[in-house]
Amino acid sequence: MKHYLTMALALLMAFNVMAQRNVISIEDFEISPDSVVTMPVILTNSDPTRGLQFNMTLPAGLVVVDKALTDYSSEQYHMSMFARLNKGVWVMGLYPSGVICFPPDTAAIMTITFKAEAGFDGGEIILWRQLGSTIDNKSIVFDNDTTIVTVPKASIMEINEDGLPASEQYFNLNGQPIVSPDSVPVAIQVTTRPDGRRSSRKVAVVQ
After folding, report:
1. According to the CATH classification, is domain 2-153 in 2.60.40.680?
2. Residue 32 CA: distances (Å) to CA of 6, 47, 117, 150
3. Cα dihedral angle (73, 75, 77, 79), rounded to 10 degrees?
4. pLDDT per residue over 130-185, tens digit each?
5. Is 12 left (phi over 0), alpha (psi -120 to 50) or beta?
6. Distance (Å, whole) CA 119 – CA 125
7. Other CB atoms within 10 A of residue 49 CB
8. Could you read off the pLDDT of 60-100 as tens digits, one per residue?
9. E runs forming strands in the chain
10. Domain map (residue ranges) of the chain
């Protein structure tokens, strides 16, 4: 499995200006099937917020495999994190151990590691029902946000010498069709080209 780490913290520091709105966001990103990518979750706030919470809906074939606070949240502002999956929707939030607020800023508050399953072909991550909290625990309504997740073209289809796409199917060693090769130790990949020609090979998924 390939593991890519995408952190745009240097870019954030270059554009560290006073926020004009309140929103929690994840930058658009690209991920290949059967790979993982770690993305920063960005808090942009014009109002100090003592804590925050948001819902996250993922496209089919994209899952969360890990999450962690950044030093900005845990070390500077002594935040703790909660995260739970409820009927297909992730509910995540940060809260302090004392009377402290995130100041107006643009900063990475946590990271989420996503895994794309073998058949993933892209989609949207929706961050919604976003809320902050004043120092006296009154709610601050944040904007919703959408992240576009794409798959590299080379991962979507194989291009043959004529520039036309070829389809792929997978079978176990008994000849039974399977959804993806990572469900068995060794699979048979059958490639069918537009002119009807077929080729096959054994593939093994390395974890």
Report:
1. yes
2. 13, 37, 9, 8
3. 60
4. 999 999 989 999 999 999 999 987 665 544 444 555 677 777 777 778 877 777 77
5. alpha
6. 17
7. 22
8. 999 999 999 999 999 999 999 999 999 999 999 999 988 99
9. 2-5, 23-25, 29-30, 35-45, 52-57, 62-69, 79-86, 89-96, 105-116, 123-133, 139-141, 145-150, 158-159, 165-171, 177-178, 186-192, 198-204
10. 2-153, 157-204
For the chain, what's the residue count?
A: 207
For the chain, give the longest Cα–Cα distance: 69
Give the pTM: 0.68
Phi, psi of 109 (to 5 degrees): -100, -25
Q: Given this model, what pLDDT does residue 156 score? A: 54
Phi-psi region of 193 (alpha: psi -120 to 50; beta: other; left: phi over 0): beta
Pairwise CA distance, residues 65 & 92, whole Å: 14
pLDDT in tens, 10-50: 344 434 434 368 999 999 999 999 999 999 999 999 999 99
Structure tokens at 64: 């969360």
Which two three-digit tokens encode residue 122? 């892209």
